[in-house]
Amino acid sequence: RCEHCFAYIRFWNNPKHLTECPRVRVPCELCSVEIYREDIAEHIEKYCPEEMIECPFVKYKCMTRIKRKDIDKHLEENETKHLGLKLTTMEDLIIKQSEKIDEQSVEITKQCEKFNKQSEKID
Question: Which of 45, 55, 83, 100 is most buried per CB count within 10 Å?
Fold first, then answer.
């Protein structure tokens, strides 16, 4: 029986099993902390301080990739830059919405003129 996951295994399969057993603690390839093999992917994706992650302002076009452990410093040092990026994104959105409103206004005017012409024919 495996001392880590308690699975029943044959004696001759023990070395192979230990290289695959989900409950064996293995070092993270990035930060070297010991974690159960089954938890390595989640550790790297969500918690590993050495994992490279995107800046949370990527949606505002901050293209910085930084180690998770350094993200607070990045946010603090780039607060003005991030606010500027956010403002630019909002300005772009306002311009696009304004253009869409103008297009719709022109279309409404055309439809009103068309309606008025047809209305005149009926009278």
Answer: 55
Of 55, 48, 52, nearest to 77 by C-alpha is: 55
Strands (E), 28-94: 34-36, 52-54, 65-67
Model pLDDT for residues 8-60, shown as the tens digit of each residue: 887 667 778 888 899 999 999 999 999 999 999 999 999 999 999 999 999 99
Name the amino acid, one letter, at 120. E
The answer to whether 86 and 93 have CB atoms below 8 angstroms apart is no
Residue whose entry in the numeric block shows the structure tokens 């302002």: 57
CA proximity to 82, closest of 95, 64, 97:
64
Structure tokens at 12: 């001759």
Element counts in the chain: helices (H) and strands (E): 4, 4
At residue 62, the 3 state secondary structure works out as coil
pTM for the model: 0.69
